[in-house]
Design goal:
The chain has a seven-stranded mixed β-sheet. It has 235 residues and is of the alpha+beta class. Helices cover 31% and strands 17% of the residues.
Length: 235
Amino acid sequence: MGMAKPSYEDIRQKRMEENKKRLEDLNLPRLAQSLNRTLSPKPSPIKKAGSKPHNSETLLVAVRRSARVASNPAPVYAEVKMERIGMSRSRSTYGVPRGSSRYPAGLVYVSEEARARATEKAEQLVENLGTSYPTLVRPLLPSHVSGCFWLGLPMRFCRDNMPRNDEMVTLVDEEGDEYPTMWLQRKTGLSGGWRGFSLAHGLVDGDAVVFQVIKHGVLKVYIIRAHDLDDHDET
């Protein structure tokens, strides 16, 4: 009969004993113990300090103040109810307050009634001129007759009757005198040249002008003066 084969447990036990002997030969168990002692966490000094009993006693100390104000009484911080002061609004003309930088003091001022009558008379003039030529009534504002002297025109009127590009147009007054003026198509307004026309005819805020397009690039201009109507003269 042959010898019985060693069981699995016997083989495993034998192998474990061999491995243990190798480790002891290499002195690894002692090295592991020394490393564990070296890497063990030390108690934090901050935690030790925090473990002291908290002193709840409150100390009252003097507030540090500058030597310059040390003799002054301590400030009192209290809510103060503010009263709203009503401001009177100055009378404005077309949204521009009189006396402001946009409404120079040197301009001639007219009443709102005279301004409205000038526009009404300009519309009556348009009816008398008929429909042979396109017409436009333009009441004048401070920016039209002072400062930048810029006169913008309604988009629809410009689209139907004015040049499609920037170019010089001619303003013809009631005496037949001509004034070359720069027409800016994208901005729909009269620029260079309108200032000369305005100053030459003494146009002021409140006046109304009637533009009549008599041919391409030529506009006849009629002037209705508001200050002539400020005394309620309807003639």
